[in-house]
């Protein structure tokens, strides 16, 4: 049975390693990159030909986790030429600001569009689709749905629409979602996913509402 949603918690960030929430838009630690690669090897072993979409939070550590973990799934045009990733026609990484971490700590506050484009040039077209204020968590300029229940609904609706689109195109219909502990708790309150790990769910509808089970 497919139609699976694989919730991935980003690998170890510098803020985790140093226990320092003041690091702006914290990157992965060196060990975090290794953990992300290991995650990808384990994931591919079980789901090598099932994934039709990968959607990530636009925070640095989630983008880095996605790129490091899934080079055999993602299209190679999204990687720097110096990355050593071989030519591969695959999935284009999608970014969704609703998947960013919930709190406004510095480590959980994203970078501006221009800074992200400079750091991840292979994702330029996707990054430029983000609202220029995507990283603002609250206030009149924030594009994030408020309250959190609306944000949860927006994420689940996107997953439902993505599944429908994959089915219409007769593509593999598993979706990888790379995000953060706060968002995981919002989407699947009973989940316990350590950094650099994942858990698999199905998107179901009950009484007109969407749930991950």
TrEMBL record:
Pfam families linked? His_Phos_1 (PF00300)
The record's section on SMART domains has: PGAM
What's a Gene Ontology MF term here? phosphatase activity
Q: Which domain of life is it from?
A: Eukaryota
Please give the name of this protein.
Histidine phosphatase superfamily
Q: InterPro entries of this UniProt entry?
A: His_Pase_superF_clade-1, His_PPase_superfam, PGM_Phosphatase
A GO cellular-component term linked to this record: cytoplasm
